[in-house]
Specification:
Layout lengths: L6 H9 L15 H4 L18 H31 L3 H33 L3 H4 L10 H12 L3 H17 L2 E6 L4 E6 L1 H42 L11 H31 L9 H26 L30 H22 L15 H14 L13 H25 L6 H29 L10 H6 L1
Antiparallel strand pairs: 1-2
Helix pairs in contact: 3-4, 3-7, 3-9, 4-6, 4-8, 6-7, 7-8, 8-9, 8-10, 9-10, 10-13, 10-14, 11-12, 13-14
């Protein structure tokens, strides 16, 4: 009885006619008959994958935890609004609930729309490697349903595990007669699985970074802002502290998620170039610390400055957390500090967008002749300008020392000016130890980020040239 072939097998058979001879692990005509080297666009060897199963499982766990904390945060804020006895306080908390839900839902919808559209990429883009062309109807339906439920990123991680498993089953040992050794190689079908895995990993990294700057970064700022402007949620009743605990958990997860998305994107960019070695585990840790430090310093600065209460002044000592009371009246709402903060960082966004556009990266050049498409380049500059509100990304293949120095000097000036203004403005409503701690945290985190940058590019970066006699040691790192 003839075996019905799946969509994956049909495509593989189309590309490699001798594929069926390899399914039982035996070579039909010697090692050279069907086994081939891994394509140049697939990094690593047949036995060295771009992602570990444990790492993918941990990533899936973090993604689920992120969704759970989103739901818990929304539920607790809504419950807090319902429990408020004061009508004004209840209305304000309800506004915070709506804003939080908007920050959660809108980015998830955008990310899942992009993810699904990339799954259904035209065959013209990827040819026989287009992911959806390898799926049965049932799997296509599963992918669509997962995206409708806004779980598209998790579906991608599960696909990575699936194709990783399929790829691992296609490793064969090939004899090299000249050296009388055997080396691991992928079958032609294994090469297809490797390419599918690479494509999904690349798209997942881009989607993770998109999610990071659409949801995690705004959520970080807003939740720290709420800890300042809604301090009445912390009191002697332990039943109310759960809101703060969930906020703190969400802040920690968002910071880690944003840093990991930046590092993952950097690694995927390097894997796309055959002359770029992997960063390595130690380099990854240093890069995550670098990103977390810089983003944390920036978020504390933005949220602290935006949370300054300018109105009736402080309440009596002991009322509210650190002297703040959320119902303080604003004398001039158009000069409130959230509005001033939006203007300051709107100007920063514009400056960064112009600066990036002036560098002429040609990121959106035409596929055929590479000519720039001005509208897309402008859109790309605006997107990167938004990213540069929080951190620096090298968007060109040229060395970035000068651009990085300019950005971080500007970042330091902005952070210091705003946090010093905050320190002076809230002098009558906060304890001295708290104000000193916040200012110290901003400057310390920035210096910690700079230190990690120097460590990474000075000693760990794959292009670093080690001292004479230490090449093997540093290469092993």
């Amino acid at each position: 009885m003839s075996r019905r072939k799946s969509g994956e097998e049909e495509v593989c058979q189309k590309i490699y006619p001798c594929l069926d001879d390899l399914e039982d692990g035996r070579d039909s005509g010697g090692a050279e008959a069907g086994l081939q080297n891994v394509p140049v666009h697939v990094s690593g060897t047949a036995t060295q994958d771009s992602s570990s199963s444990l790492g993918l499982i941990i990533t899936i766990g973090f993604a689920i935890l992120d969704i759970v904390t989103d739901i818990l945060l929304a539920i607790t804020l809504h419950a807090q609004a319902k429990a408020e006895a004061d009508e004004d306080a209840a209305r304000e908390t309800l506004i915070w609930f709506v804003v939080t839900c908007t920050i959660i839902i809108v980015p998830m919808v955008v990310v899942n729309c992009f993810s699904l559209s990339w799954y259904f990429q035209n065959k013209k883009c990827l040819g026989d490697y287009c992911v959806m062309h390898k799926m049965s109807t049932a799997r296509k339906l599963y992918i669509v349903v997962m995206h409708i439920l806004l779980l598209g990123p998790i579906a991608r991680y599960l696909d990575l595990l699936y194709y990783k498993h399929k790829r691992a089953k296609q490793v064969r040992r090939v004899s090299v007669q000249q050296k009388n050794v055997q080396v691991p190689r992928l079958t032609p079908k294994g090469e297809v699985f490797a390419v599918l895995q690479m494509v999904i990993a690349r798209d997942s990294a881009m989607l993770d970074m998109l999610h990071g700057f659409l949801q995690d970064a705004p959520q970080l700022v807003f939740q720290v802002f709420l800890l300042y402007r809604a301090p009445y949620i912390v009191d002697t009743d332990l039943s109310d502290t759960k809101t703060v605990m969930i906020q703190l958990l969400k802040i920690a997860l968002s910071l880690l998620s944003l840093a990991m998305s930046l590092v993952s994107y950097q690694e995927e960019l390097r894997r796309g170039l055959i002359d770029k070695p992997k960063i390595g585990i130690f380099g990854t840790i240093i890069c995550v610390l670098w990103r977390m430090s810089m983003v944390a310093a920036r978020v504390i600065t933005i949220a602290s400055f935006a949370a300054i209460v300018d109105g009736k002044g402080p309440q009596e000592s002991g009322t509210g957390w650190l002297g703040y009371k959320s119902s303080d009246a604003i004398d001039n709402p158009f000069m409130s500090y959230p509005v001033i903060t939006a203007c300051v960082f709107g100007a920063h966004w514009l400056l960064m967008s112009v600066w990036i556009h002036a560098q002429k990266s040609n990121f959106c050049g035409r596929p055929g002749d590479g000519q720039p498409r001005q509208c897309l380049e402008l859109l790309y500059s605006l997107v990167m300008g938004w990213v540069h509100i929080f951190c620096f990304i090298n968007h060109k293949s040229t060395p970035a020392a000068g651009r990085m120095a300019f950005y971080y000097i500007l970042n330091l000036i902005e952070n210091t000016a705003l946090i010093v203004w905050w320190f002076l403005k809230v002098i009558v409503v906060t304890e001295l130890w708290f104000r000193v701690t916040i200012v110290f945290s901003v400057e310390f985190l920035f210096l910690l980020g700079v230190s990690n940058i120097l460590i990474y590019y000075g000693f760990i970066h794959p292009k670093h040239t080690p001292p004479e006699g230490h090449q093997q040691l540093l290469f092993d790192r």
